[in-house]
Design a protein that fits this description.
247 residues; mainly alpha; Arp2/3 complex 21 kDa subunit ARPC3; two-stranded antiparallel sheet; elongated
Length: 247
Amino acid sequence: MLFANKPTWVKLLITLGVAGVVLLLNPLSTKLYGIEAYAGLAPVVAAVSAAFLPPLWALTGAALPLILGMIGLSVFPGGNAGLTFLASSAGGYALAPLWFAGIGGLFLWLDREEEPKPGAYALGLVAAIVASNLTGTLWLVGVGGYDWNEVLRRGTLWMALGDLFRSVIAFSIFFFYHREIGRRAVWERRLRTHRRRMDERYELLDTIERGEVKPGEEDEVKEEEVERARRELKAREKDDLPPYVKL
């Protein structure tokens, strides 16, 4: 994840930025015909934030607009506000940004690879689509009293297709970053790490040549480590870096 290792204040600023964009997009949601459900672009922002922030930070960015809506600000889908909206039949789908923020990047976070895997992100988006539509459907049936067939035909089907479209947008943004920007950043970090290790081995060789460290003694470097350091140092002089650090 791009911002996983950034300072707390950086992640806080990004989280507040995500919350601000969600605040702007949530009221612009449109109501589906014949069913109490709203579709908008706020889940896209939540899904993208899940790709670059740890789950709790992304979840916080999606939860802040909901908290503000509960206390009376008109930031819920369709410009609604208050706990009464969440308690209505439309409240289930209003929680969609939470699912996309909390689950969308969960598999990326669990994978913890230096170079993010698109497959792990796609799996998280699919899980978020299922969770969002399951919650919205149960809310419409349980709270709104809609018939199952009506909900599945007019609500769940269209919302699932909309979520799929929104997920494609989020995945495209992630994939572009992964291919064009993120991979190069990963290689540059690896190159810096490689050079730092080479410097450490250079210092080690210098120490051995001065006789301050003798291979084979207790708590000293092993002879194979010395040979390895010499080989790497020779490769460095030829500027023959291993393939995994070439840009």
